[in-house]
Structures are given as structure tokens and as C-alpha cells.
């Protein structure tokens, strides 16, 4: 393939990133709207968030200074040999970057290094530079919806068993496709695994603190979890913070990318409106093991607890929330946009908190139990 790589302007990237930050459309919808690959949407959104942080951290000024010296650097490169140019290319640490980031480092118009040589230097094939994987097909999106529904019924299904189930439903699918789609959705079967691999090798994993602990009052233990939300085209991710004892949903956020930012937003809203718990429990997902997330909790004086690897039952109450939410709301409505989904979730979660009696709460709603305890403490 001899075509040139498309170069997008900063204005175009900013426009797409702002739409992604609004969260109205899925990454698939944004990619189709602007004629780009869906991985670019997530990458530009991440760059926009980092860029906004740089504005307030003083890094923007440094970046401007660096830009002013680019012309001088280019003149210097013109005077030195090919070996030094290649060393400079390596000096940017490209080998430690992901495949996507390494691909972006290649400069098709570089005056001294050919595309073939640049691909060799960053350890990717030339075809790997030109080829961008296609977005999920309508069939795969339909399979992901079916996987999601079945996983609620049988959360112990791995890729092999899920493939068998869908073949019985009339779909010609293999285990490799199931493994890839389940990984894309963030689904992990609940069987016990050895704790030898962590979601992020550089993040600290905290011990599980809830074993044999009697949890009988509000704000004693909060928990949080992420789930996949299917839409008519594509999918979004939902995070929620719940009070363990009362089952009350304290805050929630929706995002088109599975990053730490929207999890932090939900956590900070819960802390701002409901005080702080004694213990905060999550799974070992990289969003929750992120130092940014755990740092907020530690600075607030909250003890951090994390489920054992693959231990679905350790966070069972919020898993039951997902089941109810999907069967009573998500699967009954083919949401088209992020605003439609937010409106639907706002209505259902309001009903769940204030109007849906729980047998575990003696027929009371989460709001009633949570508020009754607050009134009792005030009276005392």
C-alpha cells in the first residue's frame, strides 16, 4: 500500500475530542460521523484531558518554549549524520509506548528517515503502520449485546462456554472471537484465579477488608464498579458508587471510554454529597487501582479494600444492581445517544433509590434506610 497517512489538523482533533468529552455519542458513532478510526477518538480525548491539565500546571508555557526551539533543532538535525538522527528518534522513548502511540510517532514527510526505516526503529511492520483495524461490525455489536445478557445469567461463562451458548442460538462463532469481544467489554468469568497477574503492573493492589466483617450501617462501606452498556450503535461504560448497607446509589457517571476520569468524577461527587465511608471496596480494575483514584480515598482518610482476582461475589451487591438496571431499563430501551441514556438512567436510578422496595431492607427503599440512619445520628 503506497497511500500517504492522513494528517489531521489540531482544530479537527480538538473538535472530535470535545464531542467525546461531552459523551453524547459512542466512539463508534463519533468515528463514523467524522470518518476516522474509533481508536483515534479515545486517544484524542485522552490528549485533550492531559492538555487541559497542563494549562493549569504550568506545563503549557514550557511547551510553548519547546515549540519556539523546534526550528533550531531542525537546523541542527540537518548538520548531523544519519546515525545521530536515528539515535534522536530512539531518544524519545518510543520503544516503551503502545503500538498505537508508536504508529503516531512515525513522520511520513521526515526528510532523513524513510517510513520503512522508521517502522523498523519502532518495531512495527510497514503494513502495521498503514493498516487501522475496522470498527466493530453490526454482527459483533449484536453478539456483544447477547454476551452481556447471558453473562448476567451465567457470570462463570468463559469464552469457550459463551461460544457454545451462541452456537446453540444459531450464530457461527469461535472461541477467539468470544475472547476478544469479552475482553473489549471488560467481562471476566468469576472462577478463582491465581493472583499472579494484575490489571496494571505498576499499580498497588490493596487487601480485601470485608471478609467476616458485619456491615450494618450507612457510610460504613461503599463500593464501586464498572459495567458495559449496549446501545443501538456501539456501547458506553457506566460506573456507580453504592453504599453497601443500604444499597443506595450515591453517584454515577457514563463515558464512551473506559478511563479513570469519569470514575474520579463519580467518586468526588459521592464524597462531596454524602461525606466519607470508613472503607471503600472495588475490584482490581486499572481505573480503581490508579494512584489518582486511591489517592483521593487515602487523602480523605478512607481505608481501601479490593476484591480478590476474579472474585465476583466480593462485590455482589453492585453486581445485583447491574442485573436489575439492565433488565428493567437498558434492555427495554434501544438508547440512541448518550443524552437519551443519561435521561433513562437518571429516571431508573431515582426509582431504584426512592421507589423500589428491597426485601433485604425489610421492604424499605434505599433512600428510606439511608435517611433514617442519618436522622437517628442527628437526634443522638
Structure write-up:
- The chain is of the alpha/beta class.
- It has 3 domains: 121 residues, no CATH class; 48 residues; 159 residues, Ribonuclease H-like superfamily/Ribonuclease H (Nucleotidyltransferase, domain 5, 2-Layer Sandwich).
- The protein is built from 18 helices and 5 strands.
- It has a 5-stranded mixed sheet, with helices on both faces.
- α1 crosses α3, α2 crosses α3 and α11 crosses α12.
- The longest helix is centred in the N-terminal third of the chain and has 20 residues.
- InterPro entries: HTH-like_dom, Integrase_cat-core, RNaseH-like_sf, RNaseH_sf, Transpos_IS3, Transposase_8, Transposase_IS3/IS150/IS904, Trp_repressor/repl_initiator.
- It comes from Teichococcus vastitatis.
- This is IS3 family transposase.
- Keywords: Coiled coil.
How many angstroms separate the termini?
A: 76 Å
Counted beta strands: 5
CATH C-level category of the largest domain: Alpha Beta
Query: Class by helix and strand content?
Result: alpha/beta
Helix fraction, binned, reads 40-55%
CATH superfamily of the largest domain: Ribonuclease H-like superfamily/Ribonuclease H
**Unreliable stretches covering 5 or more consecutive residues:** 192-198
DSSP strand content:
5-15%
| Count of alpha/pi helices | 18
Average of the residue pLDDT scores: 80
Radius of gyration, in Å, reads 24 Å
The CATH architecture designation of the largest domain is 2-Layer Sandwich
Strand order of the largest sheet: 3-2-1-4-5
Main sheet makeup: 5 strands, mixed
Indicate how many domains the architecture comprises. Answer: 3
Looking at the structure, the CATH topology of the largest domain is: Nucleotidyltransferase, domain 5
Helices and strands, in order, run as HHHHHHHHHHHHEEEHEHHEHHH
Shape: globular
Amino acid at each position: 500500500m503506497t497511500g500517504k497517512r492522513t494528517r489531521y489538523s489540531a482544530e479537527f482533533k480538538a473538535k472530535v475530542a470535545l464531542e467525546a468529552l461531552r459523551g453524547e455519542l459512542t466512539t463508534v458513532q463519533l468515528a463514523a460521523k467524522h470518518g476516522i478510526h474509533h481508536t483515534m477518538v479515545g486517544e484524542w480525548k485522552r490528549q485533550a484531558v492531559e492538555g487541559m491539565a497542563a494549562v493549569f500546571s504550568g506545563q503549557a508555557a514550557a511547551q510553548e518554549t519547546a515549540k519556539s526551539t523546534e526550528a533550531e533543532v531542525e537546523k541542527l538535525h540537518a548538520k548531523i549524520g544519519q546515525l545521530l538522527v536515528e539515535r534522536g528518534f530512539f531518544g524519545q522513548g518510543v520503544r516503551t509506548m503502545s503500538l498505537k502511540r508508536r504508529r503516531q510517532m512515525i513522520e511520513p514527510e521526515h526528510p532523513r528517515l524513510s517510513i520503512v526505516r522508521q517502522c523498523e526503529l519502532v518495531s512495527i511492520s510497514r503494513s502495521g503502520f498503514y493498516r487501522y483495524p475496522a470498527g466493530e461490525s453490526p454482527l459483533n455489536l449484536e453478539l456483544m449485546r447477547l454476551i452481556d445478557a447471558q453473562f448476567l445469567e451465567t457470570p462463570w461463562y468463559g469464552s469457550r462456554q459463551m461460544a457454545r451458548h451462541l452456537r446453540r442460538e444459531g450464530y457461527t462463532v469461535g472461541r477467539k472471537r468470544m475472547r476478544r469481544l469479552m475482553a473489549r467489554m471488560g467481562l471476566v468469568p468469576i472462577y478463582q484465579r491465581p493472583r499472579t497477574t494484575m490489571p496494571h503492573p505498576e499499580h498497588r493492589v490493596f487487601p480485601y477488608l470485608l471478609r467476616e466483617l458485619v456491615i450494618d450501617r450507612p457510610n460504613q462501606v461503599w463500593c464501586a464498579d464498572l459495567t458495559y452498556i449496549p446501545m443501538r450503535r456501539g456501547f458506553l461504560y457506566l460506573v456507580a458508587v453504592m453504599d453497601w448497607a443500604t444499597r443506595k446509589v450515591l453517584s454515577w457517571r457514563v463515558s464512551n471510554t473506559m478511563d479513570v476520569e469519569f470514575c474520579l468524577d463519580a467518586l468526588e461527587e459521592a464524597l462531596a454529597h454524602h461525606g466519607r465511608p470508613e472503607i471503600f471496596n472495588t475490584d482490581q480494575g486499572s481505573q480503581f487501582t490508579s494512584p489518582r483514584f486511591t489517592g483521593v480515598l487515602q487523602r480523605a482518610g478512607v481505608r481501601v479494600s479490593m476484591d480478590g482476582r476474579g472474585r465476583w461475589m466480593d462485590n455482589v451487591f453492585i453486581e445485583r444492581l447491574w442485573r436489575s438496571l439492565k433488565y428493567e431499563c437498558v434492555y427495554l430501551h434501544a438508547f440512541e445517544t448518550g443524552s437519551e441514556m443519561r435521561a433513562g438512567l437518571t429516571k431508573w436510578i431515582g426509582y431504584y433509590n426512592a421507589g423500589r422496595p428491597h426485601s433485604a431492607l425489610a421492604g424499605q427503599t434505599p433512600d428510606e434506610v439511608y435517611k433514617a440512619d442519618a436522622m437517628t445520628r442527628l437526634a443522638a
